[in-house]
Amino acid sequence: MKLSKSAKPQSDWRKKVLSIVNLRPEEGERTLLMFTAYTITSVGLLWLEQTTIALFLERFGAEGLPVIYIASAVMGSGLGVLYSWLQNNLPLKRVFTAVSLLMALPLLLFRGGLELGNINPFLVMGTVFLMRLWMDAEEILNDLNSQVAANQLFNIREIKRTYPIISSGLLLGDVISGFSLPVLIFLIGLQNIIIAAALMILGGGATLLYLSNRYKQAFPDTPVREIEELQPTYTAKRTSSTLRRYIVPLFAFFILGELLYLLVEFQYLGELERAYPNTDEIAGFLGLFSGILGICELATQWFVSSRAVERLGVFVAAMFLPVSLSVLGFFTIVFDLTNIGGLDIDSAKILFFGVIVLRFFDELLRYTLIAGIEPFLFQPLPAEIRGNVQTQVQGIAEPLSTGLTGGGMIAIVWVLGRLLQDLQPEAARQVQGGVFVAAIVFFSIIWALSALLLRQSYITLLVQSAEQGRLGFSTVDLKAFRRAILEALDQNPSEEDQRSCIQLLERIDLPNAGEILAPRLVQFSPGLQRQSMEVMLRYPNTAYLGDVQRLIEAKPKLEVLALALRYIWLAQPELETHTLKPYLNERVDPMVRGTAAGLILRRGSEDDRAHALATMEQMLTSPRERDRIIGVQALQEVAPQSSMIRVYVPKLLQDESVRVRCTLLDAIAQKKLEQYYPSLLKGLYYRSTREAARESLVQLGDDALPLLQSIAEDNHKPDFIRSQCWGAMADIGTDNALAALIEQLLVSWGTTRRNVLRIILKIPRERGIEAVLEQMGRSGVEMLLDQELSLLAQLYAAESDLSEQAVTGLEADLLRSALQGMQSDGLDRCFLVMKLLYPFSSIQAAILNLDSDSEVSNALGLEILDNTLDVPQKPYLLSILENRPLKERLEDLSEVIPYNPLSPKLRVQRLLELRHFLSDWTLACCFHLAKANRWGIDREAALVGLRHPSSFAREAVLAYLNAASPRTCWELLPVLKDDPDPLVAAQVDRLKQSLNYSP
Predict the structure, then answer these.
(1) In which band, very low, low, confident or very high, does the pLDDT at 630 lie, cut at 50, 70 and 90?
(2) Residues 6+ apart with CB under 8 A from 890
(3) Are residues 395 and 76 in contact, defined by beta-carbon separation less than 8 angstroms?
(4) Which end of the chain is more exposed for a tag (fewer CB within 10 A), N or C?
(5) Whether the predicted pLDDT of 974 surpasses 50
(6) pLDDT by residue (tens digit) across 863-893?
């Protein structure tokens, strides 16, 4: 029987294309469909935007925009509430349809309102105003639709790769809409563009609806409920001062960004209104401008943005836009507003050109560089409050800033109108334009300063988070980090903070750590001195010998002195050994004496080495434990072929001191003494040496993999020891080690698969999960679920056919209990597999609720899974977890494996065919039940059972054969005469006596 479905083969060319855009094969179709839906809708929205702006400028002028901003802020909050209500009361498929209709149908009404312009001009003005207001609503609804759909369609790991590609649909829409708009205006007229936009929006909605039906497992048929209260909540701690210093400029950064966007848009549209009095000309210019801008945005997004962020750093990239706006605005003011009192045509053209350039750079950099770095700005925040802060910043602060900016614009226009009422209208508009450009320069400078403040707090937060191990350094500025560490160390913080700084320095710039640590060695506490010397010893450098020598002269603690001596020796290849010989005196502390002896053995003269060897022999045979431990540590400096290794290592492996043996295991790994590697494996079997043996094996790296695999893949070894070996391979963490773990995940079953899954999930920074998804793909993970469901279907079928009505007796009760235990184990493995695809918190919240005895909690757990899972197996999993009657579960799983009722005898035989997938106890129960009812069992199954690693399984097979076929039992007794288990051996002896067996 096959317990898995083979994944569909992917063509080589498709894989190559997907790899170019950093996608995995199973993500390609979903990403393409989302990109298509987003692009089609964006084209329609951009047609509507360019048409609406032209009509609005004709009727109201740019002076009407502040009122739109105020109304838009209120409407944005209302639409968010409406969308949330739709989600909570309609299935997502219907939500997408309803929102698409809500976006498109009002456009037809607007077109009708424009058609009635000849009858009632005020109706046209009202229609145009509502169109401009609705344009902002369309953008909000489209963003909500696309983001919700993407979050449902892709898990948290997939969306990092796919959403940048999906979001570039807006940039492609810019190009398509921009160059097609002038043609459409010529063919169908400006006002009919509204109908074309409605059709495109409906087309995007239809694509989204097709997508939701194509991947229906990702979109539940029930309304999406609010499930945040079902998951573990975070009790917010009092925000630290450092965190506050970061959050305040974070709010300022986003608020100022929105404010500047509105200022630039207001001035840009005002200049268009003045330069192009004809509505069709405005629309045509907007189309061409959008098309050219879209091409530049696409090129920047695909070829420049990521490289710029990587080379310049996040915050240099963040300051690039405000600095550009301030510089461009300043030059616009200098070249344009030199003649405020008397307007000439040249200054008007300069102002127009300057504002167009401002708008171009604002949109170009805002939707590429700024949009790309926004997620990184929230990374230093604790994970527990990150989502809440992000919602407050982007969901509340930005919309409110829109309304406040609109109110401020109205006030400024009113004040300027009073002050400039004596000037000619054109001159007044010119001065007003200069004032707004000056405001753009002013707020751009403040925006850049907020980014600078943000950078300082950002680095401090990252330094403080070093111990938490939750940060990556792929997007940080190394020089900025080093500066932050220097500042932190010079401010004399607590010892714990200094230790964090040293740990962070070790992680990000180990080769140059001595440059920062060496000058501060003398001022550090003994604990920090030891930590610093251990870091510096990784890369000894003669440049810091003076600092280390000053540390020695300060008479540090003995362990620090030993490390300092070692550093001086390693940093000076030509150092004379006579400088170390005084430290070999017996009156010197063993720590320093052992270090000196080891260093002399490495490069000393023959006489010096003889003296050092005598010192080491004295330490290794000393009755004092500490002497022997330090002597073993010094063995790391002895040549592997030395007679000292051959003589003392075997003796020390039997040392009465656990600490000595553990230190020796570390020395074996450090010296790579291959002849003693079996001792490392043996150390795993004893509790006292297990941790040291495991750490030593991890030190060996890939060299230890064959040793670990030899134990881990031997099913005759204890499960705990095998699990220790898999754990050691996970700690090694190399590509080869992870590949071996994943290979075992594919071929193992039952307890072994459960243990391997748990180990993979615990690998830090989700490296194990990423390796699984990289090697197996999402389809491979779904295959694991298929296998578990297939086995569950077989177990449910066995439970049905072996019911109390079908077969009775103690043996039958034991088998039924074993089958139920296997069902529980299978579901546990399903949840572990789910954690490869979905956030731990969601799956764990579902598990906690499903484990409850409360029906309400069980329902909540199912609801969490219904809204989290998007795998094809979701309906089967939900059906199983609903605790529905056994018959209904079998019917639901009939698509996985059809259920054909069998007699109890045939069902047991069927289970034995699946013996490789059964637990040890379940297999033993099958033989016990067959024995009790004298059912025939396949000879091969019995022979395999006799070689089973579990003794009680072999015992059950023997008991069955003795009752069912004494002759066969007679023939097989020689196979078991040397069984290692004493119970089985005793049973064999009894059978020999009862059968009068004589070899």
Answers:
(1) confident
(2) 793, 796, 797, 800, 899
(3) no
(4) C
(5) yes
(6) 788 777 878 888 888 888 887 788 888 888 8
Tokens of residue 138, six digits: 């369309």
Q: What is the 3-state secondary structure (H, E, C) of 415-435?
A: HHHHHCCCCCHHHHHHHHHHH
**18 compared with 593, residue with greater pLDDT:** 593
- Could you tell me which CATH class the domain 24-233 is placed in? mainly alpha
- For 757-780, what is each residue's pLDDT tens digit? 999 999 987 889 989 988 888 888
CA distance 183 to 176: 11
pLDDT of 264 over the 60 cut: yes
Same fold, 24-233 and 247-462: yes
Eight-class DSSP state of 526? H
What are the residue ranges spanned by the domains of the chain? 24-233, 247-462, 763-899, 902-999
- Cα gap 851→846, rounded to integer Å: 9
Quote the CA–CA distance of 229 and 849 in Å, as a whole number.
Answer: 12
**Fold of the 247-462 domain:** Growth Hormone; Chain: A; (1.20.1250)
Distance CA 380, CA 314 (A): 13
Three-class HEC string of 254-323: HHHHHHHHHHHHHHHHHHHHHHCCCHHHHHHHHHHHHHHHHHHHHHHHHHCHHHHHHHHCHHHHHHHHHH
Q: Contact at 8 Å (CB) between 798 and 923? A: no
**Cα 212 to the chain's mean position, in Å?**
25
Is the pTM value of this prediction over 0.90?
no
Which residue's structure tokens are 């003589």? 647
- Name residues whose C-beta falls within 8 Å of residue 338's C-beta, 6 or more positions apart in sequence: 347
Q: What is the mean pLDDT of residues 204-213?
A: 89
Asked whether 866 and 897 are in contact (CB, 8 A), the reply is no
Angle between helices 314-336 and 305-312 (to 10 degrees): 100
Confidence of residue 118 (pLDDT cuts 50, 70, 90): low
CB 216 within 8 Å of CB 873: no
Separation of alpha carbons 788 and 234, rounded Å: 34
> Which single residue is written with the structure tokens 């077109």?
111
Nearest-angstrom CA–CA distance, 193 and 173: 15
818 pLDDT tier (thresholds 50, 70, 90): very high
Exposed, middle or buried by CB within 10 Å (0-12, 13-18, 19+), for 6?
exposed
- Would you give the DSSP letter of residue 157? T
